[in-house]
Amino acid sequence: MEEVAGQARRIAALVPQIARNLRLAALVESVRHGLTTAQLMALFILRDAGADGLPVSQLAHDLGVSVPTVTGMADRLVDTGMLKRVHSETDRRVVLLGLSGEGLKVAEKLWGVLEELITRILRDMSPEARRAIGDAVEQVFGLSQEVRKEETVLAGVER
After folding, report:
1. Model pTM?
2. Which of 27, 29, 108, 151 is 20 to 30 Å from the Cα of 40, by its Cα?
3. What are the backbone dihedrals phi and psi of residue 96, each rounded to the nearest 5 degrees, phi first?
């Protein structure tokens, strides 16, 4: 168990340093002036949610922030034309957030830039290392889904 904890500390220390090395915040800013990393995450989550969008409460849960925080973020993104708000057809009290055409365009552009960055990193690795990292990231993703599911059930927010 101590070995796992040590590896977790090592990875946790490297992830923010990798983000800093890649200047992700500046990259986001270069694609859309004034866009924050948190707003980018919201755009990516809503991109994956599809045309129906998500309730504000679900986006808040997915981002790990409060509903008022998402409401303020959504206000800014609606003002910039990247998000749209609609009321749920089944429950008018529920506000759904979805990407506008502009928001989808920005999310896709940022996604492409992110893919290019990852490609630049991977091309300097051996094919075996690329496969190993791809397999490891897929495994981490699957395990992260399990952790999220457990936390969602514990929090009483099932989806």
Report:
1. 0.77
2. 151
3. -105, 140
